[in-house]
Structure formats: C-alpha cells, structure tokens
Write a structure and sequence with these properties.
- The chain is an alpha/beta fold.
- The chain has a single domain, classed as 3-Layer(aba) Sandwich (Rossmann fold), CATH 3.40.50.
- Helix 5 crosses helix 9.
- Bound molecules: guanosine-5'-diphosphate-beta-L-fucopyranose.
- The site of guanosine-5'-diphosphate-beta-L-fucopyranose has 24 residues, from helix 2, helix 5 and strand 7.
Length: 301
Amino acid sequence: MAKIVTGGNGLVGSQFGSQYQKLGRNDADLTQKDETISVFKALAPDVVIHAAAEVGGLYSNMKWPDDYFIQNVNINNNVIKASRVAGVKKLVAFLSTCIFPDVVEYPLTEQKIHSGPPHSSNYGYAYAKRMMDVAIQTHNQQYGTNWFCVIPTNIYGVNDNFSVADGHVIPALIHKVFQARENKEVLKVPGNGSALREFIFARDVAAIVDRLIENYTDTTPVIISTSHEISIKEILEIIVELMNYKGKIEWLTEMSNGQHRKPSDTSKLKSILPDVKFTGIYEGLKETIQWFEANYPGVRK
Ligand code: GFB
C-alpha cells in the first residue's frame, strides 16, 4: 500500500517514518497541475499526507498575502485533483490554528473555523487553508471519500526554515540568538513578547497523524495541540538560556505581535487517542537548538 507525504523534506513531512515515500520540491512542483497529476498517477498511492505548503511567520505573511493565498490555493487544488485521479483512498490535509477567526469565543474548537474573519496579518494564508477545508468536505460529499483535515497549532522542530525575516518565531529567534551571540551584538526581538502561543514538536505531529489514519474514520477536522499556552517572552528566555546568550535584549515594540492568542480545545483528539503524549517545550527547544548548531550553516534560512 503506497503512502506518500507531500512536503517530504519539510518541518513536518520529514518527521514521518520510512513507510512513507517523501515527495520534495524536486520530485513534483505542486503548483503545476499537470505535473502533480502525472507524479501521483505514477506513484498510485493509497494514502497521501499533504504537508506541503508555502508557509512563513507573521511578518512574512504580512508582506506577501497574495503569494500565500494564490500559491497555497494552487497547491491544494492540484493535490486534491491528483489524489482523485490517482484513486487515493485516504488523504489527510494540514490546516493550522492560525486560520481561526480573530474574534472568537475561546477555546478554539473544530466547529469555529469559518465563524468569522481571520486575523488581518494572516488573511491570505488563512483563507487558502479554509478553502482546502471546504474542498475536502465537498470532495467527500460528491465522491464518497472519507478524507479529513488536521489543524495543528504552531509547529517547531528540526528541518524548519530558520530565516530571521520570514521564519516562524521559534526558528527565527534561534537564528537571531545565534547571530547575536556569535557577533557579540544586541539581540533585537520584534513585538513585546506578550503574545501567547501553543507550540507542538514536529515529531509529535507526525506520530499523531500516523495514528489518526488508523484510528479516525470521520471526516470533520481534528485539532492537534498541546493546549499549553506559553508567552513569546518565556520562549525567548528558554532559548537564551539553552544557547547561553549573555548579551542585551531589545524589544522592537513598534512591530506587530500578531494574534494575541489561539488557545485550542483538544478534547476531540484526546477522545480518539486518549493516550496521546507530547514532547515538553524545554526538551523540544533543546533538541531543535542542538540540531541547528550541529547543522549550521547548512540549514534552510
Ligand atoms: O510564528 P509566528 O511568526 O506566527 O509568531 P503566528 C509570531 C509571534 O512571535 C508574534 C513574535 O507575537 C511576534 O511578535 N516574534 C518575536 C516573532 N520574535 C519573532 C521573530 O523573530 N519572528 C517571528 N515570526 N515572530 C503564524 C501565521 O502566526 O502562525 C502563519 O502567520 C502560520 O501563517 C503560523 O500559520 C502557524 O503564530 O503569529
């Protein structure tokens, strides 16, 4: 039974086991429909984990909302079309907790995705992902498939994009602390550190999705999170401690904090996988930093 992962060299895709064939950018340009269909027909997978996307942190999304919308809509439509043509039995697609409405009653639950506009900073990416949720549901309705979406919270780990300008907060801060320590410079951090986030280690996301394929037969989305909120300031303190940075820290408070918080309700996940476990944030950051320091400068940045 052929199983493939799109985004196979990326943050999440790279964490799936060897029973999955990893598709990277060099194997198929998923923004091109004909190429995507011909690759999927050739591989004839039964299972597709669609983890590929054009992603970036808050500041990247604020700069290029149209790119994030168009690229991800094209990728997602091509993967869904190619999966149908190739006769894929199970497609699991990745949404994100950042696509939920900005004004919403907390905690976030799977039913609330479309109940209001997303945070303005993330408009393009959020609507592209919301359209994929709709596309999976309409495909199930019309073709009788039981495909589903997962909704992970902010994911971090090895093989991430450590770009200081366009990466997500954890990889961007690891790289910034590294540069400040090596160059004996002041560490300049965007925002004021007050935002709260739930972070999940990429290896845990892959393990959970792998188990959901075997244990979940419904078609409504499933939130995947630790439900443990931590402030950006606390995250920075752990990274600074683990990287032994002793210099000054300057908060660039004129820069946006993005969404203040996105606390999620994971009772659905726990009802499907009651014994689900998560890597602690300190351990996860330690492993990510060790990987970064061992692989620098050969990391995505
Ligand atoms: O990971 P991040 O960019 O994404 O986190 P979001 C942004 C938060 O981290 C804001 C603070 O509160 C920033 O002020 N922050 C501090 C930094 N230093 C940095 C830094 O150097 N880089 C970045 N990027 N942030 C994203 C969405 O929102 O969530 C994406 O924009 C994606 O589309 C992702 O879905 C999961 O959590 O704010």
